[in-house]
Amino acid sequence: MNQTRRSFLKSSIAAGAALSLPARLYSAAAGANEDIRIGVIGFNGRGQDHIKGYLGLKGARIVAMCDVDTAVLDKGVAQLKAKGQEVTPYQDIRKMLESKEVDVVSIATPNHWHSLAAIWAIQAGKDVYVEKPVSHNVWEGRQLVKAAEAHQKIVQMGVQSRSGVGLAAALEWVKDAPLGKLQYARALCYKRRASIGKVDGGQPVPATIDYDLWCGPAAKLPLTRAKLHYDWHWVWNTGNGDLGNQGIHQMDIARRFLGEDAISPAVMAFGGRLGYVDDGETPNSLVIFHDYKKAPLIFEVRGLPEKTDAKEMDKYRGASVGVVVQYERGHILCPNYNDAIAFDADGKEIRKFAKPAAPGAEGETDGENHYANFLHVVRSRKTADLHGKIIDGHISSALCHTGNIAYRLGKKAAPDAIKEKIKGSKDAMDSFDRLASHLVANNVDISTDQLAFGQYLKFDPASEKFIGNPEADKLLTREYRAPFVVPEKV
Questions:
Q1: Considering only the top CATH level, what class is 5-164+366-389?
Q2: Element (H, E) at 251
Q3: For residue 471, what are the CA distances in angstroms to 404, 412, 448, 477?
Q4: Which of 297, 244, 235 lies closest to 266, judged by CA?
């Protein structure tokens, strides 16, 4: 059922001109004379990109907007009105989903709402575009996949690199093993993250926010950080750290180069939240080791230095946010969501896969065209043509979740104890040594501020459960808060 990389590349190149010219997008589609009516849910952050993307497409019309913060909602409605578009505002997603005036919903809420909002939308008869990660935990991501299949709805996941033809071309090229055997894929999220501050006790929730709706399926806890918006990424109740924030993009690219279509059979982690003490819980320094049989997928998160000063973010082989895929006779660097550069064993560039010089050339379909592809398939109902299939969103998101689970079950350990545990893998040891050097450069002594060393967890990709570890299995899902419950039967 999944489209092969070869067919994706051919269809992407062939469709390049049409995707770059929205006026031609729906010329052969059924119902081409009718606008697809869109409701955007959550637009204080990524949702702004959704709005921009849809406004640029012919045959698409935003008719509804939903946000639990009325200050954000009023601003968004005014924003559209200034562009000549009248939209219906909603504070409660359930009211929007009842509307027969909305054909598709585009979800850019905080992570803890992604799966439930998408499942509810599917059950209400809507097609869905859902931001990354597509889930807050593994179980609900699989429930979203089941819902899409059961109701035969189009669900696009918001990893824009899936519409990058440059990456698709590189993936096609490596099939013939021009650089020899694959050795590892190392994904990087070296992205400065400042302290979110430390406050005492509960903070008042802004009066414009329906906090019960904001919490939704998550536990309704007191607000114990200075800022409600965005900093939800750094607490486990609502976020997944930078692994599930920025890192999901690089996780997905790395998995594509490995050619893996399931969650890894084993995972290990080490890291910590270091360099400052604040109200955040998720690590700002982290290494995840997914032990696939063919080759490992290694993920490295670094959030230091906290401030710009004279310090630059680290780079690994030319990238701070990207993917490096190592082969016997060279490597491929993916520095963004589209480009890929191949190097030989001496580090000499031998081929580049980049943005097209003109529409239809070999290269990128830009971020807006990920939305265009979604709407194209909404019209055609040909799921095989969807660039970001929800099953792929689930697997790549789940790799973030199982990595976080390995970290969360970890215990503080001295540097030598960690090295003893990982000495059998030169790639894991390399990640540890470079992380240790990075932390020393940022005035962190890991002999005192020890890293947490996560368990080596074995996983059954078929059942999507850990093997012999009920403690880890508990973190594959959560206790949902009524009435915001991801249903067992979708």
A1: alpha beta
A2: helix 247-258
A3: 14, 18, 28, 11
A4: 297
Q: What 3-state class would DSSP assign to 334?
A: strand
Looking at 124-240, list the stretches that DSSP marks H as alpha helix, in order from N- to C-terminal side: 138-151, 165-173, 211-215
pLDDT bin (cut points 50, 70, 90) of residue 144 is very high
The contacts of residue 84 (CB under 8 Å, 6+ apart) are: none
CATH 3.40.50.720 occupies which residues in the chain? 5-164+366-389
**Cα–Cα–Cα angle for 321, 337, 265, rounded to 5 degrees:** 75
The dihedral sign for the CA sequence 339, 345, 347, 348: negative
Q: How far apart are CA 420 and CA 414, in angstroms?
A: 10
Quote the distance between the C-alpha of residue 180 and its chain's center: 30
Average pLDDT value for residue range 422-428: 96
| pLDDT tens string 347-398 | 999 999 987 654 433 333 344 489 999 999 999 999 999 999 999 999 999 9
* pLDDT tens readout for residues 95-140: 999 999 999 999 999 999 999 999 999 999 999 999 999 999 999 9
Residue 470's H or E segment, with its range, is: helix 470-474
pLDDT digits (tens, 9 = 90+) for 455-470: 899 999 999 999 999 9
For 309, counting Cβ atoms within 10 Å of its Cβ (0-12 exposed, 13-18 middle, 19+ buried), the class is exposed
Mean pLDDT of 329-352: 97
For the cut 80, the answer to whether the pLDDT of residue 88 exceeds it is yes
Residue 15: its H or E element: helix 5-20
CATH class of residue range 165-361+394-474: alpha beta
Q: Are 66 and 73 in contact (CB under 8 A)?
A: yes
User: At residue 219, does pLDDT exceed 50?
Assistant: yes
Tokens of 211: 């906090």
Peptide bond between residue 296 and the one before it cis (omega within 30 degrees of 0) = no
Mean pLDDT, the chain, integer: 91
Closest CA to 136 of 264, 282, 351, 4: 282
Distance CA 365, CA 380 (A): 19
Domain boundaries for CATH 3.30.360.10 within the chain: 165-361+394-474
For residues 248 and 231, what is the distance between their CA atoms, to the nearest angstrom? 17
Residue type, 88: T
Helix (H) or strand (E) holding 66, with range, is strand 60-66
Query: Which among 158, 164, 120, 138 is positioned nearest to 5, based on CA atoms?
Result: 164
